[in-house]
Amino acid sequence: MYKSLQDFMKVLEEEKQLKRISVKVSSDLEITEITDRVSKAYGPALLFEKVDNSPYPLLINTFGTNERLNLSLKVDDLDSIAKDIKSFIDIYNSQEILNEIENTKYTKRLNNIFPKKVDNAPCQEVIESPDLSKLPILKCWPEDGGRSITLPLVITKDPETGVQNMGMYRLQVYDHKTTGMHWHLHKDGRETYKKYRKMGGKMPVSVAIGTDPATTYAATAPLPKTIDEMVFSGFLRKRPLEIVKSKTNDLYVPANAEFIIEGYVDVNEELREEGPFANHTGYYSSKDAYPVFHITCITHKKNAVYPTTIVGKPPMENCYLGKASQRIFLPLLKLQLPEIVDINSPIEGIFNNCVIVSIKKSYPGHAKKVMHAIWDMRQMMYTKMIIIVDENISPKDLSTVAWKVFNNIDAKRDVVIVEGPLDALDHASNMNRYGHKMGIDATKKWPTEGHTRKWSNDVEMKDDIKTLVNERWKAYGF
Ligand SMILES: Cc1cc2nc3c(=O)[nH]c(=O)nc-3n(C[C@H](O)[C@H](O)[C@H](O)COP(=O)(O)O)c2cc1C
Ligand SMILES: [Mn+2]
Q: 0.90 cut: is pTM over it?
């Protein structure tokens, strides 16, 4: 597995998946426009070697295609990670005593999951006093409230359990040593902040920028709060993540990161206005109040590279990260809802806005039960539209799904509208974070669901006729 971001960049370059741009460019909107064009054309990762007067090159669009995302996690297919997670859960749940070989394999793997502490770390080769103005931080879109660090791995520690968390929350720059701390309501960093608020004082925060790709991905993954993302990174990498203690607080950070920004959030301090910011929904989210991150120290590699991303109208880089989570966590979802066969969120619906689910329907109202179960889940509760289809329909086959939705429903019987929490990024609801969500049951309806007429079959040709036509196809002159 890649040890660092620069290791991965080497492979990208060998695979002709990285383009260097050597002319000087501006971090103020110009990089966004270039990257947006390349990203929409499913083009390569981009390394801008000269950005303004910054000494650091800027890497963007790293995860910008399915192919690069697979390469970043060293898999041919994300379903193989899903299978790996599933087999781990199966072993964990197994009541039988494992045979010796399996047992050794399992223990060996477990030993390789937990982070390994080191004393000397590349990320601390250079130690500097805080000065964000040296970094090529982007102003992404015209109406953004400022420049933002868009790929930060924000590391915090639960003061009660001592478990660390690593989540990706953007940091809008206020000045050379303070930024916003944009953890949304319901996010783990924010939950920990709430605990510190009760205690008062300073909450330590360290931020890693530019890690090996599995670690970066782990910070975006929808994990339960009790799981440290660094452990998940070890699971994905099949070897431990090396970590080192920050210089000015007690948090452990990825040793091979490009940059570490250390500091704290003063929980007694007033919140500060953050935003607006152009989001992955393709709309601006408005200003809101968030805590302030005070920087005490910046450490970095000697030849550090600054990675970042832009979000905006899909498809963009973040779509591939989001898709990865959906594939990787499908077994966990199925553990809770075994009736689920497959799931798909079309890129146009971003992640929260549309989810299509195929189910093995086994009792009246089953589709509606699945909708409510999804609205009950922490990471999926914001889903604005849930479409349920029968098990023989692939949620990825959007044309067939549309055919079922357009033709299979009786609006009054099959459309469910509920009221509840919405994502902070939603711009369409009347109120911020609160509004309505819709479920559409596009499954075949049963007499026990009130459809007592005969449900006509899908029009299908008989198999023997299909075979006959296959065999005679050339004879027809095609
Ligand atoms: C590029 C990118 C930017 C993100 N920005 C934010 C953000 O500013 N605030 C936020 O709460 N979540 C953001 N997220 C989503 C979180 O990283 C994601 O929900 C993650 O699971 C949070 O970790 P946690 O569960 O440990 O809180 C972003 C994700 C990506 C891929
Ligand atoms: Mn977490």
A: yes
